[in-house]
Amino acid sequence: MKIIKYLKSPSKIILYLMNKNFFWWLDDEKYLKLRYRLITKSKLNLENPETFNEKIQWLKIHDRKLEYTKMADKYKVREYIQEKIGKEYLIPLIGLYNKFDDIDFEKLPNQFVIKCTHDSGGLVVCTDKSKLNIKETKNKINKCISKNFYCEGREWPYKNIKPRIIIEKYIKDESKKGLKDYKLFCFHGKVKMILVCSNRFIKLEKTFFDEKWNRINLTEGEHDVNITLQKPYNFEKMKELAERLSKNMKFLRVDFYEVNRKIYFGELTFYPNSGYEKFEPDKWNKKLGNMINLYL
Question: Cα separation of 96 and 116, whole Å?
Fold first, then answer.
């Protein structure tokens, strides 16, 4: 029983209430210190942060530029990408909607992807429109639309994004394990690590590489590792584009897809896993933290 589970763990009750914005009255620093302790069981050092996760929390509070809101908005970021690297890297847009009931499904192609502009996880992938459960899709998207994503992790760029819905073209990878997501970790405008997410819809695999495509002995949580991954055809181009997008930034993760040797932009991420990454071995938390100089 969920209720019994929560009652046995007061920290879970507090985290649940935090996720529901019951702690709106706490300023960001106090809120993040409380949340960090509840999740990691350790004290958040914001005065002299050392680890990757600590520095991500520090950046939430101290590194705030107006353009970050545009970069986090899944619709407005398209304009940013077009300006910085070119519209040829954008997944074709089918439509932009203020609410779910504005979508005319009869006019949509057979395959598409629905996203919310202001959150993480507000996603529905349709590979066959005739099999799409419209009611379930509506419930999921409306739940995401009503959620204030900023409140949960205090990720500042999301605070002022207007919640909307976009529909993009479905892009397909012919490999049996589906589309691979290449996440390039950029530190001060230089790619230092790549996380590849594969087999997403069966059993997610997360595999880490360095900037020269040497596999790193690093795992995240309990996810499997794919040791057979080949370097993408456009690997060097991906790195070049990621470094252009992350120029003059202390940290930014840039996500790409590669389909039929063509690069598509995925998203820009300021705070991976909201600064609660579970690195194994844990030494990587400090190693990656050393790559971020907060005072440059």
Answer: 10
> Are 132 and 159 members of one domain?
yes
Cis status of the peptide bond prior to 281, with omega within 30 of 0: yes
Domain limits for position 101 = 92-169
Using alpha carbons, select from 83, 75, 77, 124 the residue that is nearest to residue 252: 77
At 217, which CATH number?
3.30.470
75, two tokens: 């619709």
Stretch 140-150: mean pLDDT: 92
Confidence of residue 181 (pLDDT cuts 50, 70, 90): very high
Residue 23 forms part of a structural domain: no
Residue pair 225/233 in contact by the 8 Å Cβ criterion: no
Q: Are 60 and 292 in contact (CB under 8 A)?
A: no
The number of C-alpha atoms within 13 Å of 121 and in the hemisphere containing its C-beta is 8
Assess whether pLDDT exceeds 70 at residue 91.
yes
Please tell me the pTM assigned to this model: 0.94
Q: What angle do CA 39, 192, 212 make, to 5 degrees?
A: 130
| Residue 165 falls inside a structural domain | yes
Average pLDDT of 166-176? Answer: 85
In this prediction, residue 200 carries a pLDDT of 76
Q: Which long-range contacts (CB under 8 A, 24 or more apart) does 203-206 make?
A: 205/177
Determine, yes or no, domain membership for 102.
Answer: yes
Residues 192 and 60 in one domain: yes
The answer to whether residues 256 and 182 touch, using CB atoms and an 8 Å cutoff, is yes
What is the rounded CA–CA span in Å between residue 142 and residue 112?
18
1: pLDDT strictly greater than 60: no
What value does the mean pLDDT of the chain take?
Answer: 93
Lowest mean pLDDT among 134-138, 257-261, 267-271: 257-261
